[in-house]
Amino acid sequence: MSTAFDHTFDTLIDRTGTGSLKWDDMERIFGPVPQNAIPLWVADMDFHAPEAVQNAVKDVAAQGIYGYPAESSAPREAAATWLADRHGWAPGKESLVTVPGVVPGMALLIRELTAPGDGVAVQPPVYPPLFDCVRAAGRRVVENPLVETDGRWGMDLGGLEGIFRGGVRLLLLCSPHNPVGRVWTRDELSALADLCQRYGVMVVADEIHHDLVLPGHTHTVFASLPQCQPDRVVTCVSASKSFNLGGLPHAYVVATDGALRQRIAHAVVGRGLAHGDLFGMVAQEAAHRHGAPWLDALRMYIADNAAMLQDRLHSHLPWVRMATLEGTYLAWLDCRASGMDETTMMRRLVAAGVVPSGGRFFGTGGEGHLRVNLATPRTRLSAAIARMIVGLA
Length: 393
Ligand SMILES: Cc1ncc(COP(=O)(O)O)c(C=O)c1O
Known about the structure:
393 residues; alpha/beta; Aspartate Aminotransferase, domain 1; Aspartate Aminotransferase, domain 2; 7-stranded mixed sheet; 5-stranded mixed sheet; 15 helices; 14 strands; binds pyridoxal-5'-phosphate; cysteine-S-conjugate beta-lyase; lyase; aminotransferase; cysteine-S-conjugate beta-lyase activity
């Protein structure tokens, strides 16, 4: 697959010394790493943002005055139009409440929608703040681990029903799912919605990866399903993952029920989270208005990177099982057949000069897996794969 935008993603950019968590904090997180180690861990891309986004940020920077931004509806309007055009869901801009990030939004929603001691369901292996935020709020994490069949992960709806019967107030849905790379199908989500409705379980859907769906797959907004009652579902979205804007925090909590939205907006003010980030706001507006061609080219590039990883593993480490990548730019590798424990495996990889995320970080079911960030130029990924082959052989 080739696109007019390939050259953008092929450019090797030296990010060392730029204050990047992914590049400059490797030693702090993983201990001593060889010079020129390649980081494939945190979900951050080694690509420039679309030019329209860079220009919007530069225009604001050039003003030289960085006071509180006005409560403009333009960014919300751009985000609502994006949701409608791209995802076939039209909640209307008035349904979007601005928050400083998806994680702060989730942390606030957990506190707002449940009481201390309530059970909150999560489906590990999963992005760790989903369970960390529950614990930090004094709620109970109730796990319903995902199940894997022939390299494809799924939700265990029987298990979920069991824990719902035992008493759960809220489910945190990760869709598409980080780290297993699933784009949940409409049928899967419909069955989940039926179950939540039957047991009166509210859902907070973390859909931050909604745009990062590989060709051939379609993201279904959970809240758009007919079974979902507007006062029982809240959706968290942001352009930050799609366009690599993690350092400019900005996100939306979408609630189509007016009373629920009022409650959330009130909690945002009450927790001191109402003042948005000026740069995050303009960057996301520009991304939503002008970023679609860049994003489509990116999705192709990631698909090709995933295919390269799969091929090389197949030839050199056939015992590594890569989960079918449907969404996100994060490959999930089952390395349990290595016979090494995860600590040894990570130590060998780091020594070989490549730094993925260890699966243990993602909770139950993650041990012995690796999460590999594919959002890097192909030549660098190729070099990283060569090092992985050395480290795991
Ligand atoms: C599933 C998921 N949710 C949330 C986030 C982070 O959201 P934010 O940076 O807006 O807090 C990430 C980042 O990788 C993620 O993978």
